[in-house]
Amino acid sequence: MFYCRLCNFKTPSLPRHLLHHKFHRNIHNYVHCGFEKCLKFFKKEAHLKKHLFRSHNLLKQKENPKTVLNSDQRGKFVCSISSCEKEWDCFSDLVKHLKVHIKKNDQITCPMHDCGKKYKVLSSFTSHLTKQHRNNYKKVQDSKIYDQSEIEESQTNSDSVEAQSLECVVDNENQSERFEIDGNAQSESPVELNPSLEESSDLYLHNLAQFYLKLETQLLLSASTVKTIVTEITSMQRESQNIVMTSLARKLISEGISADKVDIIVKEIINEDPFLKCNVKLGSNYKRKKFYKENFDFIQPESLVIDKENQTYFSYVPIIETLKYTFQDKSIQHEILKKPEPRDKDVLFDFMDGTVYKCNTFFNDNPDALKIILYQDAFEVVNPIGAAKKKHKILAVYMSIENLPENLRSHVNTIKLVALCNEIDFDCQKVYGKIVEDLKIIETTGIEVGECILTTWKNSLEKKVKPIRQYLKTCHTLKINKSQELKNIIQDCKEATETRKDNYPKNAIIFPLLVLYFEENIELLYNIVDSALNEDAILETCANNNHPVLIIRGKTLYDSESTCTIILEGKTVIYCSDFLDGILLTFLSYYIFGYKYPAGLEKTLEFIQRILLQINPPIGTKTAPGKKRRTKSYNSAVFSLAKALSNFSDSFKTT
């Protein structure tokens, strides 16, 4: 499975993975691997293919020849660019198509058999064809470059393998997993592999907005210039559309379709034009800025006072907010959290090899701490002469995160702006005082990064509990193997609903149902005890547990008068308002106190983690090591249930 490094897109198809990268081309021009969430990236597609073969043991199935066979024998000539692979009936059309790729700065491979030379310059490619393949190029339509055995073999394979498909085999220790890189493949995820029309339109909109933002911020075009470009391109698009639609209408009428239907078809196509639809939202400078702020990582600068009497100010971009967005950025968050590689003691790499850093007590005690370097620079925004010199000189304070690898630290996109002020107004204590104040908060208190767990929990209880309950209540496996236990759980919930007159029991029932489905021990999750028991007696019952346990003092878990506490290491550590809050806090205790999921409850806890709280780390697991070695980071039983739920209800399509 290929995962996009910049969004939530995933696919088993390499061509679709490469095509998806084009939606992010205005962010950078690198090609990410993404296979099983690999973080490597490359400048060229060819380098990515070598990496897939060498690092991931992806073995190419013998590919059908893509170049000079007669179309009557092989059918089509196919473009060698993996993200394209368009088919042509005529070899000369293929050559013209490859020339178009060169004009787009793509590197193409010579289509002649046993050549394999690569070109990015159009004149070099045409000269190569003329000089090296003059005879083959002229006779391509009536000569056989491949022997007959190869043709017959490829024709046999074409019945079972889609034309020009590429299949990869990943050899693990205990099994082989097959991934079809182009074509219909079995999904490894309970989500939709291919984006819907709405998702594709949204990607297109964001890509167009990134292009306009790139014109303003990187190419330094004024807002009025960008507006002129947008207006002119929109006008040309409409004119082009009118010409194409007129030609299409004539073709449809010539095929016998009535004029009324043709008019309806043409209007629908015009109305669905993605470029024109997106420019409605991005047509003006105001709309573009509003879209940037709402959809991209925008941090509102603060205007802070330097000298109130002289009315001097400086602009401050809060470091805390900058770090929050940085850690939420999928493209670099894993690079920041990555463990540093061992260093050669005889080589000085960077500041971390210096005496000042090595003697710093804080970093000695916290080797994984965030390393932030601040530096300042002054620059002129104009080119003044005479008396105006230094009048408009601006002083800027920047920040770089030294936890990033060396190749990313000095990249302009990873250097963050912290403050701006006029150089003549600069006051070190005022400007750096606010910066140091925020740094002390980060050092002593820390900051919360990511989505709010409580919000995610409430949304899951609201949207996902009902389909989970309905599926588990009608689950064929439970009805056959656990029929009596299933009836008892459902009956208790029904009686509690009638007594309480609310939906609380319908939310709480999914947890005993999940434990029953996974055939695990409910007492490892919670225990229901008599409310008359004193605390010492309760603690004694949990003395042997080496993990958090929720204790419910009451008749049932639906009892509105019950009280809930969490027992940890023989002590009552947390008091909970109700059972559902108790389940959430019990689960979070595994993370806060660093416990592994116990055997006999690991499936239920992983389901809560991945489905209800949407905590899906790319690597690692909270499950305690057992006798059987797990080859994957997720539990197969949890994956199977998640996949069944995604087929059962639309609430899980985007999980």
TrEMBL record:
Task: Quote a single Gene Ontology cellular component term.
Answer: nucleus
For this protein, the parts annotated as crossing the membrane are: none
Q: Indicate the principal place this protein occupies in or around the cell.
A: nucleus
User: What's a GO biological-process term for it?
Assistant: regulation of transcription by RNA polymerase II
Keyword field: Metal-binding, Nucleus, Transcription, Transcription regulation, Zinc, Zinc-finger
Q: Where in the cell is it found?
A: Nucleus
Recorded coiled-coil stretches: none
Q: Which residues form the C2H2-type domain?
A: 31-61, 77-106
- Which PROSITE patterns does the UniProt entry name for this protein? ZINC_FINGER_C2H2_1, ZINC_FINGER_C2H2_2
Gene Ontology MF annotations: zinc ion binding
Could you tell me what this protein is called? C2H2-type domain-containing protein
